[in-house]
Design brief:
- By secondary structure, this protein is α/β, with parallel strands linked by helices.
- It has one domain: NAD(P)-binding Rossmann-like Domain (Rossmann fold), CATH 3.40.50.720.
- The chain is built from twelve helices and twelve strands.
- Helix 8 crosses helix 10.
- The longest helix is centred in the N-terminal third of the chain and has 20 residues.
- Bound molecules: nicotinamide-adenine-dinucleotide (NAD) and 2'deoxy-thymidine-5'-diphospho-alpha-D-glucose.
- The site of nicotinamide-adenine-dinucleotide has 30 residues, from helix 1, helix 4, strand 5 and strand 7.
């Protein structure tokens, strides 16, 4: 692949993918298209800013003309779509942008790819499309029962990917990744939010009893899996990407506090997220068998490295935790924390 368009490449996972891909494939041109929403951040791409095979374009995947012009100008052969609204709590407060980007935007991208002869489209989806599972592990063929507006918009987008493969023969692949953590993650998600709050000795609002289970995946492992699927995945195929490390939220919180040397008294049990999925769990059997991918990092080693990164990079997150971030924090947490238990 001579030119890859990475949409949403200024976000958390997209920028990690870009940083790794620019270095790993020096003969491939990487073009980032990103709207730079509140979650997009050019600081995430500073390490590749001067790389000769990297280009940045600001724009919306839902804007057909922008997408078509970029595909034409750079001779795009493959698209990897990370662009999305991604935070479940925000989708509960205001679902509109989720439908617009995660469904309509993805449709525009697929349609432009089809019309302009792009050879491959890889779509980055999520384990949340399955809904919650009390026991056992989700497989790729299982029914989709998304529960939040975010999960529903991601499931809707996936249906459009399927339709473009089946109807038009577009070479598509989809990955469903589990809860991803690492450096450069916007500090609204559990890990970076709790790490940065704890660093300032502020309360950590844990929803409900904190016994919800997530499968934790290090960002570098997630990116390596996407790279494998992009290059070697079967047309039309869907692959789970699990971290193979299930933990209750309270265990993750305690691990972060221990790593920072901060007390557990910072934890506040607050009102639960509406419709909160109790457990996500995936099997990696398919990607392991077909593409020989497995996670290379243990949770403990990767989370310690992540915590240390936030400790060493206050320049990155302190300026984010201002303005709109504080408005959102107030909306999401003020009432919850006021009525919190210890
Ligand atoms: P993020 O919120 O950090 O970044 C999203 C990026 O998309 C931002 O740079 C934003 O500016 C950009 N964007 C949003 N709307 C856009 C639009 N209309 N046009 C162009 N760019 C737009 O997200 P993330 O956590 O890096 O997630 C990336 C992808 O991976 C998403 O599709 C998400 O659903 C999926 N995913 C995330 C996780 C996770 O745990 N973070 C797990 C599995 C799957
Ligand atoms: O599973 C993959 C998904 O993981 C991705 O598709 C999403 O984009 C990503 O945001 C993430 O979704 P979650 O809802 O699982 O992640 P979040 O970090 O918001 O929350 C993780 C768990 O922690 C969840 O059970 C809710 C809980 N939580 C979260 C926050 C922000 C709290 O208890 N308190 C909080 O303040």
């Amino acid at each position: 692949m001579k030119t890859i368009l990475v949409t949403g490449g200024a976000g958390f996972i997209g920028s990690a993918f870009v940083r790794r891909t620019v270095e790993k494939y020096p003969d491939t041109t990487i073009v980032v298209l990103d709207k730079l929403t509140y979650a997009g951040n050019l600081d995430n791409l500073l390490p590749v800013h001067d790389a000769p095979n990297y280009h940045f374009e600001r724009g919306d995947i839902a804007h057909r003309q922008t997408v078509q012009q970029i595909i034409e100008r750079y001779g795009v052969e493959a698209i990897v779509n990370f662009a999305a609204e991604t935070h479940v709590d925000r989708s509960i407060l205001e679902p509109d942008a989720f439908i617009q980007t995660d469904v309509v935007g993805l449709y525009v991208l697929l349609d432009a790819a089809r019309q302009m002869g792009v050879q491959r489209v890889h779509h980055v989806s999520t384990d949340e499309v399955y809904g919650s599972v009390a026991e056992g592990f989700f497989r790729e063929g299982d029914v989709l029962e998304p529960n939040s507006p975010y999960a529903a918009s991601k499931a809707g987008g996936e249906m459009m990917v399927r339709a473009y493969h089946v109807t038009y023969g577009l070479h598509t692949t989809v990955t469903r990744g589990s809860n991803t953590f690492g450096p450069y993650q916007y500090p609204e998600k559990l890990a970076p939010f709790f790490i940065t709050e704890a660093l300032d000795d502020r309360p950590l609002p844990l929803y409900g009893d904190g016994m919800q289970v997530r499968d934790w995946l290090y960002v570098d492992d997630h990116c390596d899996a996407i790279d494998a699927v992009l290059h070697r995945g079967a047309p039309g195929a869907i692959y789970n990407i699990g971290g193979e490390h299930e933990l209750h939220n309270i265990e993750v919180t305690r691990f972060i506090l221990r790593t920072l040397g901060k007390p557990e008294s910072l934890i506040r049990h607050v009102a639960d997220r509406p419709g909160h999925d109790r457990r996500y769990a995936l099997t990696n059997d398919k990607i392991r068998a077909e593409l020989s991918w497995t996670p290379q990092h243990t949770f403990e080693e990767a989370m310690v490295a992540t915590v240390r990164w936030y400790q060493a990079n206050e320049w990155w997150w302190r300026k984010i935790k201002t303005g709109e971030y504080l408005e959102y924090y107030k909306r999401q947490y003020a009432e919850r924390l006021a009525g919190a238990g210890g």
